[in-house]
Amino acid sequence: MAVSRTIAPVITSFALVLAAACGGSKDAAPANNAASAAAGAPAAASTVASAAGAATDSIGKQVFMTCTTCHQANGQGIAGTYPPLAGSKIATGPVELPIAIVLHGLNGPITVEGKTFNNVMTPWGPVFNDTQIAAVLTYVRSQWGNSAGPVTAAQVAAVREKTKSRTTMWTWPELQAFKF
Ligand code: HEC
User: Fold this and answer.
1) pLDDT in tens, 20-29
2) CA–CA separation, 116 and 174 (whole Å)
3) Centre of ligand 1 from the C-alpha of residue 100, in Å
4) What pLDDT is attached to residue 116?
5) Closest to 176 measured CA to CA, from 79, 119, 106
6) Which residues are within 8 A (CB) of 28 and not within 5 positions of it... i.e. 6 or more apart?
7) Is it the case that residue 17 has pLDDT exceeding 70?
């Protein structure tokens, strides 16, 4: 039934954000528990958007709550520590790079919009599914003056498949050398 197909990913995303906020992001089990809890909660069901586009927007916004600790709600990051997503040519460039960064994390020196960072972003590939990663990147690419095109779940799935043997975070030189 069309309605339940729309509702399920939204509820799952809602539950995952809750689980991540509660510190359960390293383990799939709390997310599953939260998913069953949320499935029974009328409050969660009432956040369900009817149109597919609106659903993507709301998933993206919810998943982005995980990113704001570091990149900040306004996407500006924190000077010297967390790079900006607003105006970032990495975030708004070819989709493979931001997808790969979110899936596997990134560490070591990197220059974003002329400023150097040398820090660690842990992988989110085990935490979020392809739809959620597509939605959060679509959100990032359309906020704060960014105007890059959307990212689809199929694009995330393709990068996930191509990089599935990876067990460590990227460094920037590795990412640039990788043939997507
Ligand atoms: C714990 C802090 C933290 C969280 C949470 C986090 N990031 Fe990052 N992110 C970083 C750091 C630090 C870097 C740069 C890593 C380096 O120095 O090599 C980075 C780099 C990036 C980059 C490439 C550089 C740029 O500024 O464009 C993108 C894109 C990105 N993050 C997206 C995300 C998204 C989307 C999320 C949420 C799903 C997220 N990050 C969550 C810390 C974080």
Assistant:
1) 444 434 444 4
2) 17
3) 11
4) 97
5) 106
6) 126
7) no
